[in-house]
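re: that complex we talked abt at group meeting.

here r the seqs, copy pasted straight from the sheet so there may be weird spacing, ignore it
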Amino acid sequence: MNSVSENGSSIKIKTQIADRFLDGLDVALWVFDIDNSCVLWGNAKALEVWAAESIEELASRDMKADMSVSVSQRLRQYQEDFEQGDAAFTELWTLYPNGKPATLRVIYKGYRLDDGRMAMLCEASPELGETPETLRSAEALLHTTVMISLYADNGKPLYQNPAARASNADTGQNAECRFADRSEYRALMQRLRRDGKCRAAARIRTKNGVRWHEITARECSDAVTGGGAILFSEVDVSDLKQSEERVRYLADHDVLTGLPNRNFLQTEAPYRLADAKQAGKTMTLLLLDLDRFKEVNDTLGHAAGDELLIEVARRLQTAAGSNAIVSRLGGDEFIILVDEDDANSVQGHIGCRVLELFDDKIWVNNNELRVTPSIGMSEYPKNGKDLSSLMINADLALYAAKEAGKNRAEFFSVSLQSKLDDRLELEADLRRAMKEEQFELYYQPKIDVQTELITGAEALIRWHHPEKGLLNPQMFITTCEEIGIISEIGEWVITSVAQKQCELAGKGFPVSLSLNMSPRQFREPRLIDLVLSLARDTGCDPSMIEFEITESILMDEQGPITEYLETFKEIGYGIAIDDFGTGYSNLAYIQKYPISSLKIDRFFVSSLPDNSAITHLIIAMCKMMNLKSVAEGVETEEQLDWLRAQGCSEYQGFLFSPAVAPDEFAALLARQKTQATGNLVKLPTSRPRKVTSAQ
Ligand code: C2E
Ligand code: MG
Ligand code: MG
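got the structure back, here u go
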């Protein structure tokens, strides 16, 4: 190069030649500033393409105004691609100079500006050969948010549309490397090779971390090389997957403790049992129930109860180990299913280990709680071959554990099974008994302690069992309460007693009758309607009928007890507290409720006159509060003498008579009437018989 080339005029000439050359080109060239969305320079053809008056006018145009979001994202993507290397892209572009569409094939390359920023050199030539269909589809490919990529058979990337490039962590990455779990790629490819196309959801590494993509893949050929290729269309479905997973989690887990729930247990247990069968191993199922959990809820509130359950769940998981299923069935009931090895570890049997967990006190809301569990256990396959039979048998063992005094673990045994059979038989018999009218009310006379006259009677239910004969309530009342049939029986008792009172009054025996109520009856909304219409329906005199309730009914906050008792009282019915002294015996609530009498439990009466302090106190209290005192279970003259001396109002007991059939009771009343009118000997001699054993 000579010295002339170094001077200014030489540079000028060169520039002029270059300008002339560039302006004479049949291709449009321009430099686009991506950051500022404007053209920086363009040749004459570019001015024509853009329908611009001058380069200044073109440069002054704000391209951003007409630019769609997808185009601006794409340009950013190109900018990044240019930064990474010698990238070039070809696009079909349709411009609308003077409102007429002109389709151009544009090649983009990176162009570094003096200030170091990456701009874009665009080279456009008219595209004449393409059909409108091709043009539109090419446009759609650029704009779509679906990530479309073409890979060679060996997984090498051949093409990625802007959406795919925007998502890929590394655009040069082999297809398989994009999969967070390569086995998902291999499974996809297997299906693709078999069917030629397939659809699957997989976890893909992207610029934004691992995301769920729904991938539609199909085999095709590369239009350039003609070689085999795979076309992937991908959509990000992470949000959907997350909510799907959440829904699945909620369906299978208990929200409070995070433990698997019954649903999960029912799905999972069959697999665990099948595995155990195959391995020739046993499994143990523990059914656990917290003793007196209701008390925690009632005294400390439900939030404290919840906290306790969370802590129990945590402890159970620790004791059971990671292979076990620890699940919450609901309330304070949990199930653990462990295999042979976990059941019998060196720390002892799982039942004992769980019991030991509760040796450490639990702190809830600054309260130190001593909580104990009762546990029923059954073994697979000995006590059941499926979850349902294992649960039934563990439930039976749990029942036995509670019966035996709680805070213990019991295994299911065959004798429990026979108890269960008896119980099921009893339940079936009871349901039939109601329909076939096998129940009858017996009446145990109540005697005025001073006058020794019959003042009334307590109705006590009997069951004429077709095979077992006459059964006392101890044999069946608890079961009636447990299976709920007590409400139906209770309604029958109330109506029958009301009818009997009316019948006896009609025969000239104006005696009062009392009847026993179970706690569960007070949870029946129907009870109030029955009592409200009782006098009208049966013709009874409410002042001659007394409802015997236990102290536990007053403590049961689930039923509207106060409201019920007030209504009973308003209509004129009496209310007696039965078995008084054995329960809470709280003076405050006796004052709170409209009570007419207290029945002193047989337990206290039986120890008279030696241990008399409590009976003495109850009688004194009744006098003070103007309540009738009734001594239950009086069996001896000494007991009666003592009661008389204390001023007890009435008594019941074998000394006078056990509960007798209705006709016999009517006969007793008739005899008393005869004696009274004939002014015969006083009643002690007229006691029907002395009985020493319960009937
Ligand atoms: P309760 O209401 O305390 O009835 C008194 C029980 O003591 C009766 O037993 C009665 O036969 C028995 N008894 C009475 N005098 C003596 C005595 O001198 N010595 C002894 N050893 N026992 C005596 P029963 O009839 O077997 O009733 C037991 C319990 O069953 C009743 O206790 C009551 O709680 C319940 N029950 C009876 N009938 C009904 C009913 O219709 N409905 C409900 N819900 N429960 C009932
Ligand atoms: Mg009673
Ligand atoms: Mg009683």
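couple things i noticed - The mean pLDDT is 88. The pocket of C2E (ligand 1) is lined by residues 444, 460-461, 472-474, 477, 493, 516-518, 548, 578-579, 602, 632-633, 635, 652-654, 658-659, 694 (CB under 6 Å).
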